[in-house]
Design a protein that fits this description.
Chain lengths: 68, 169
Amino acid sequence: MTNILDLRKCTLVQNKVLENIIRQKEQRRKDLSKLSFKEKIHILVQLQKMARGVTKQGKAMEQIVWLI
Amino acid sequence: MEKTLKIIKELKEAKVLKDFSIGGGIAALYYIEPLLTYDLDIFFIPLQDSIDVLTPIYRYLKEKGFKAKKEHVLIEGVPVQFIPVYNDLVKEAVQFSVEVKYGRIKTRVLGLEYLIAIMLQTYRSKDRERLVKVFEEAKIDLKFLKKILKKFGLYDKYIRFKEMYFGAK
């Protein structure tokens, strides 16, 4: 069966700079996963604020931003 | 959010529902990096079996001044969706939830291994996306996970998922 992540790794091995960036991103995700529940919810609200500005097919998305 | 969780906790204390647990995107967020989601999913065990298990919850919340909008109730600025336990896996997951603290409030979140089993069962694109993140970022009790998956007939699906995304069993 085709392994999606192995395919990605094969591509990355050919580019050390990109590989390094990806590794740093993975580390950042792991660091973020260790934040407290409350800190994560604060980040979630920031993400909701950012996404509110995104439009879809010319219409503003009606997405709520949590009041916390 | 603290106020929201306090109101949800009150539903159990007031015997409007038997038990509850945070599920969905917010449960995933508890274990992995923050991800974008818009609602707080609350899986709950009703006090008694009936056709309309949501009515007592909606009535209680309406009396408190919270309004329902489509499938959500807006509680202190957070859209909350109440989902009755719909099969044995979800019911057991709620029963064996983990107690966590959010600020000063104690609440309940689905255990990681149960959350994985539920995502494997529902297996929508967003479940698969979250599953990959969970396997990359969270500390999983694989022995316990295997036990749950075998109990609920999900082990073969898990193997296929692991082969597809990680190339390993």
